[in-house]
């Protein structure tokens, strides 16, 4: 099938590469020439395990190409095929000042599609967008076609992505479900044809209305965020009673009605989806007169949870951390990604530096991103980023673990203890074994752990 993907960011690049892997002819476009130059030279602008191999194979087999702008992309992908061109909009929907989704890039893409379209097409919203966005996109495309006095058949569908950073390739090739939002039978047939090669059971292909599909994405992320915030609240109760949240989590998760996923206590969720989508859903609810009591609670608990590590550090070491050196392991919001958007490490490091501490931090892949996020702290000498985990802990007064990278779990504890000035570890992800840590002589503090 002939496919145009608008946006070579995280969602767009993964979508383009994976669709091209199934011998579809895919053109991926972007407005950033520097990003496209990197892609043309074989460089992947984001860290995602397995993505480079998929992109390289698709480019090598001539199923995937990159172009600057929608006009060039449509010129390349449109053909005399009787099938409509599938145009995926996969641009960013950043958070507006009021927490709602900013649709300027989505609507700009729709506008240009309408200006450049020459053949029948199905425009597909892959970006996470509020309920009713498909109607806005359809109106924008239709208006541009009207201005051009062109009568080209097109439709707009919703096809939200459910990609976990760090596991996006597997998620795309082995999806739990693929949601297709359309009321048009021709669109449905084309979308099913596109996605059948990705599922072993057609029941995984869920066709619903457009607005239903738009809401499914927000509701899914908000539910997962709710589970995390719920367990973090339980962890705080565990702290007060001196009981182990991991035992509680296991007991709760064994209930088949609940299950164990997303019930791990920690120092708050981050990333490009959960914080933004919960707040956007709050605004969606408010816009139709629904008071989002649960969603507001989820967000409030997460903001509070991001203070958890700092509060425990100052409770142990005092509010004035002047002259103290704190090591931080992990900067990305989760392992297997370099994404630091809304990462808990940001709140912690800025709070530590404000309290007077000298911070030395390590992350296996997020150093380059961190150099931008913390440019001010690095410039004024409050924060140092290092290339090796043990280099961060050398002569540190304490270690705070923020991201649960595998290499931290297998660290040599004897060497760690010898490296630290004081054998104090604050584990914000319950990543380390508290019994083993204490056997090695560490003062260990997890989240909701005895």
From TrEMBL:
The active site is at residue 273. NAD(+) binds at residues 30, 35, 93, 128, 165, 276, 341. Coiled coil: none annotated. InterPro entries: 6-PGluconate_DH-like_C_sf, NAD(P)-bd_dom_sf, UDP-Glc/GDP-Man, UDP-Glc/GDP-Man_DH_C, UDP-Glc/GDP-Man_DH_C_sf, UDP-Glc/GDP-Man_DH_dimer, UDP-Glc/GDP-Man_DH_N, UDPglc_DH_bac. Keywords: NAD, Oxidoreductase. It is an enzyme of class 1 (oxidoreductase). Substrate binds at residues 162-165, 217, 262-266, 270, 334. The keyword Nucleotide-binding does not apply. Residues 327-434 form the UDP-glucose/GDP-mannose dehydrogenase C-terminal domain. Pfam families: UDPG_MGDP_dh, UDPG_MGDP_dh_C, UDPG_MGDP_dh_N. SMART domains: UDPG_MGDP_dh_C (SM00984). GO terms for molecular function: NAD binding; UDP-glucose 6-dehydrogenase activity. Pathway: Nucleotide-sugar biosynthesis; UDP-alpha-D-glucuronate biosynthesis; UDP-alpha-D-glucuronate from UDP-alpha-D-glucose: step 1/1. It catalyses: UDP-alpha-D-glucose + 2 NAD(+) + H2O = UDP-alpha-D-glucuronate + 2 NADH + 3 H(+). One of its GO terms (biological process) is UDP-glucuronate biosynthetic process. Its EC number is 1.1.1.22. Belongs to the UDP-glucose/GDP-mannose dehydrogenase family. PANTHER family: UDP-GLUCOSE 6-DEHYDROGENASE TUAD. This is UDP-glucose 6-dehydrogenase.
């Amino acid at each position: 099938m002939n496919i145009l993907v608008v946006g070579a960011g995280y969602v767009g690049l993964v979508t383009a590469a994976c669709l091209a892997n199934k011998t579809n002819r895919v053109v991926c476009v972007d407005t950033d020439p520097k990003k496209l130059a990197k892609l043309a030279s074989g460089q992947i602008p984001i860290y995602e395990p397995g993505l480079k191999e998929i992109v390289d194979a698709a480019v090598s087999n001539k199923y995937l190409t990159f172009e600057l702008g929608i006009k060039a992309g449509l010129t390349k992908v449109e053909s005399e095929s009787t099938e409509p061109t599938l145009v995926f909009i996969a641009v960013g929907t950043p958070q507006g000042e009021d927490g709602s989704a900013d649709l300027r890039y989505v609507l700009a893409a729709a506008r240009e599609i309408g200006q450049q379209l020459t053949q029948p097409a199905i425009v597909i919203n892959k970006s996470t967008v509020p309920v009713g966005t498909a109607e806005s996109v359809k109106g924008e495309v239709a208006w541009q076609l009207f201005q051009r006095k062109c009568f080209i058949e097109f439709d707009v569908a919703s096809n939200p992505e459910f990609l976990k950073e760090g596991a996006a390739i597997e998620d795309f090739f082995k999806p739990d479900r693929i949601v297709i939002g359309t009321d048009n039978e021709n669109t449905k047939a084309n979308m099913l044809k596109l996605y059948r090669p990705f599922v072993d059971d057609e029941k995984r292909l869920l066709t619903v209305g457009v607005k239903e599909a738009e809401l499914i994405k927000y509701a899914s992320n908000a539910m997962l965020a709710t589970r995390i915030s719920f367990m973090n609240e339980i962890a705080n109760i565990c702290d007060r009673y001196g009981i182990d949240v991991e035992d509680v989590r296991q007991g709760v998760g064994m209930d088949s009605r609940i299950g164990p996923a997303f019930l791990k206590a920690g120092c708050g969720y981050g990333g490009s989806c959960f914080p933004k989508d919960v707040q956007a859903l709050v605004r969606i609810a408010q816009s139709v007169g629904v008071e989002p009591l649960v969603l507001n609670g989820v967000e409030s608990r997460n903001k509070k949870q991001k203070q958890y590590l700092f509060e425990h550090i100052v409770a142990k070491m005092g509010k004035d951390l002047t002259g103290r050196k704190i090591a931080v392991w992990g900067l990305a919001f989760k392992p297997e990604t370099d994404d630091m958007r809304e990462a808990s490490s940001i709140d912690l490091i800025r709070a530590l530096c404000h309290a007077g501490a000298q911070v030395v931090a390590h992350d296996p892949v997020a150093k380059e991103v961190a150099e931008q996020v913390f440019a001010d702290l690095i410039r004024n000498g409050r924060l140092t980023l290092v290339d090796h985990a043990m280099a961060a802990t050398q002569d540190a007064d304490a270690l705070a673990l923020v991201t649960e990278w595998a290499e931290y779990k297998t660290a040599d504890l004897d060497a760690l203890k010898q490296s630290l000035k004081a054998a104090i570890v604050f584990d914000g992800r319950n990543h380390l074994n508290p019994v083993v840590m204490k056997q090695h002589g560490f003062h260990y503090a997890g989240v909701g752990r005895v």
